[in-house]
Specification:
Number of strands: 12
Strand content: 35-45%
CATH superfamily: q2cbj1_9rhob like domain
Distance between the termini: 63 Å
Helix content: 10-25%
Radius of gyration: 20 Å
CATH topology: Jelly Rolls
CATH architecture: Sandwich
Number of helices: 2
Mean pLDDT: 91
Shape: globular
Number of domains: 1
Low-confidence stretches: none
């Protein structure tokens, strides 16, 4: 009888980059106070700033520089592109505030390549929930299958970066104080493809 071998491999996983700095400048009480001083509008079950280019403001320059440095590294590592030919840059950015019981519905970020969240003030056991992009196209096999949700713990000072098409949400947890975060989108500029490959495209940011 021949020997039989079985093995399982997970294909095409999504990446999630996390930079952790618990005592970052953007977690200081004065910075949190400044973030809460913006004008906000209701966004479903949480609150978002009317200003949607927050990182372009002078007082956010240092944070923007840190984010851009991380974006450059992640972009280069994940896509293996020549940084002299293609660059990634931050487009819109805004602040989110969630109080106790408030949530953020499942969503993706269109018109963006990579998106991210900076955690300015979190609660104990705080997290963000990512959703399998294909979960609603499968049969329901019950709890024995691969779970469609992944709860990722977060804390003040964290910067998460992920593919903009990766669905995510915030659950309506009981919070002792307001959860404050900054979200951002990105796009690219430069030349993709090649002249002789007949797939060249030039994008001016």
């Amino acid at each position: 009888m021949s020997e039989v071998e079985y093995h399982a491999t997970y294909l095409f996983p999504q990446f999630l980059f996390c930079r952790r700095e618990p005592n970052a400048d953007w977690t200081k009480p004065e910075f949190v106070k400044d973030c809460l001083s913006f004008d906000y509008r209701k966004n479903g079950s949480n609150w978002v700033t009317l200003q949607t280019y927050v990182l372009d403001l002078p007082e956010f320059k240092d944070l923007k520089d840190v984010i851009q440095e991380q974006l450059n590294n992640v972009f280069k590592d994940q896509y293996k592109l020549d940084g002299d030919k293609v660059q990634i840059y931050i487009t819109q950015s805004w602040l989110n505030v969630s109080d106790s019981g408030e949530s953020h519905n499942q969503h993706r970020h269109p018109n963006s390549v990579l998106s991210g969240v900076v955690y300015i003030k979190t609660n104990d056991d705080d997290h963000i929930t990512f959703v399998d992009n294909n979960f609603n196209t499968r049969l329901n096999f019950g709890s024995e299958g691969i779970p469609p949700y992944q709860h990722v713990p977060v804390q003040s000072g964290d910067i998460l970066i992920f593919d903009s098409q990766l669905a995510h949400m915030v659950n309506p947890d009981k919070r002792k104080h307001k959860r404050v975060s900054l979200a951002f989108n990105t796009f690219i500029k430069g030349t993709l493809g090649s002249y002789h490959g007949l797939d060249e495209v030039k994008i001016n940011g």
